[in-house]
Specification:
By secondary structure, the chain is α/β, with parallel strands linked by helices. The protein has a single domain (about 5-70, about 120-200), classed as Rossmann fold (3-Layer(aba) Sandwich). About 45% of the residues lie in helices and about 15% in strands. It has helices spanning about 5-10, 15-20, 20-25, 45-55, 70-80, 85-95, 100-110, 120-130, 145, 155-165, and strands spanning about 35-40, 65-70, 140, 170-175, 180-185, 190, 195-200. Strands 1, 2, 3, 4, 5, 6 and 7 form a 7-stranded mixed sheet that branches. Helix 6 (about 85-95) packs antiparallel against helix 7 (about 100-110). The chain is globular, with a radius of gyration of 18 Å. The N and C termini lie close together (about 10 Å).
């Protein structure tokens, strides 16, 4: 009979996997697969955030953890393109109209829309990695849930698979993930094929 691991047990295994897994053990930023995903129940969000904060600040790992909040990247991009104050002002003006809020959402989606040649997240991380990351370092990606509904999580993951191929990434995903489907928050389903691997299984 398989045992379901607690969130604490799963988080406690991350260090051992990063140190001993061949993907991470190859001391370069490129290893030839789609990286890892750590999926977790949304109610464990604060526990996961604390782990990421504590783990990424450690000085005894022999490598550095670089943390990227995709939501913060999205906000920074919107601020540069249209100004967050303008977005918030329009939101206040539209708050009593579902139809107008829908228009605002579509305008935001169009502004940050990623395609095969441009991705605001990939561009940001590539620029940072080029100047700040070293062989053996690992990227932790957070904020997928906060980007919903403006950015679909399956697009984020597929873009990271194809455009940061082999870069040592762990994407923290508040939902259920396997190679057949994504379920953001455990309920919003998106079925596509993903090459990223599960970092720590839920059962053993």
């Amino acid at each position: 009979m398989m045992k379901q691991l607690t969130i604490a047990e799963r988080l406690n295994r991350i260090e051992d996997i990063i140190i001993n897994d061949p993907f991470f053990g190859n001391k370069s930023l490129s290893s030839g697969n789609g990286g890892y995903i750590f999926d977790y129940d949304p109610e464990d969000e604060l526990v996961v955030r604390k782990f990421i904060k504590d783990f990424s600040s450690r000085q005894d790992l022999g490598f550095k953890i670089h943390v990227f909040d995709l939501y913060e990247i999205m906000l920074d991009y919107l601020d540069k393109e249209v100004g967050l104050d303008n977005v918030f002002e329009v939101e206040r003006e539209c708050k009593d109209s579902e139809e107008e809020l829908g228009y605002l959402k579509r305008a935001i989606v169009d502004t940050i829309q990623s395609d095969s040649t441009n991705d605001i997240f990939i561009n940001h991380i590539r620029d940072y990695v080029k100047d700040n990351a070293h062989d053996g370092d690992v990227l932790f990606l957070t904020g997928v849930g906060k980007c919903h509904p403006f950015v679909r999580s399956h697009k984020i993951i597929n873009n990271f698979d194809s455009k940061l191929n082999g870069v040592k990434t762990v994407l923290f995903y508040p939902g259920v993930y396997n190679t057949d489907e994504l379920r953001l928050f455990g309920t919003i389903t998106s079925d596509n094929y993903y090459r990223s691997m599960t970092l720590v299984e839920r059962y053993e």
